[in-house]
Amino acid sequence: MRPPLPRVHAVTDERVARRPDLDRIAADLAAGAGAALAFHARGHALSGGEIFDLATRLAVHPPSRLFLNDRLDVALAAGAVGVQLGRGSLTPEDARRLEPEWWIGVSVHDLDEARAAQAAGADYLLAGTVFPTASHPDRTPLGVAGLADIAALGLPVVAIGGITPARVAAVRAAGAYGVAAIRGLWEDLEPDAAARQMLEGLTA
User: Fold this and answer.
1) To pair with 143 at 20 to 30 A between CA atoms, which of 38, 48, 158, 171?
2) What is the DSSP track for 55-70?
3) In this predicted model, what pLDDT tens digit does every residue of 98-147 receive, in sequence order?
């Protein structure tokens, strides 16, 4: 039986993956949100070996959960509980053939993409960007209204893009099940507190 879908998703990128303090911050994040935390091993410019190394380093912080973005081969090898599919990935149906127990999410940027992902069999949606973010400065934000439209489809929605502890209440009010962040978690001066506050904002 697969575990519950985590509420707080700590997403990596190439910069995070190469931080010398990665292991310490990961431990702090796991201490803050426990089993409600998912680590997303991600980095478009990382080699397969680098992604596998990143995934195995993130997997040693139970009870947090490991997810892989796009690299389903590494997800199988590293024992991930979920995968996040983007443009150019396999379909949710194809991914489910590899591992029926995975949580299978799809990244979406608008309502049409969300409807298509739901029809394709996604278990949950990663929707964004919700607020302006340095990660995607050229992307028009969904805003909480756009997020609410996607959440109304009925799948669990994890909001991403400019997420901070102070903004969690707004996305929760729009119907978000969970939140995801890169800078809002990995660059916070107190990562354990940031993860805990985001979780409390979703579940209080």
Assistant:
1) 38
2) HHHHTTSTTSEEEEES
3) 999 999 999 999 999 999 999 999 999 999 999 987 766 777 899 999 99
Residues of the chain with pLDDT under 50: none
Q: What is the pLDDT of residue 40?
A: 98
Instruction: Please tell me the distance from the alpha carbon of residue 20 to that of residue 25, in angstroms, as a whole number.
Output: 10
Q: What's the confidence (pLDDT) of residue 31?
A: 98
C-alpha span between 142 and 131 (Å, rounded): 7
The pLDDT of residue 134 is 72
126 — phi, psi (to 5°)? -100, 110
Q: For the chain, what are the domain ranges?
A: 8-203
Q: Which residues of 50-67 are buried (b: 16+ CB within 10 A; e: fewer)?
A: bbbbbbebbbebeebbbb
Closest CA to 180 of 189, 192, 168, 170: 168
Rounded to 10 deg, the angle between the 143-151 and 111-120 helix axes is 20
Task: Give the burial class of 93: count Cβ atoms within 10 A of its Cβ; 0-12 exposed, 13-18 middle, 19 or more buried.
Answer: exposed
| Nearest by Cα to 184 from 142, 138, 128, 103 | 128
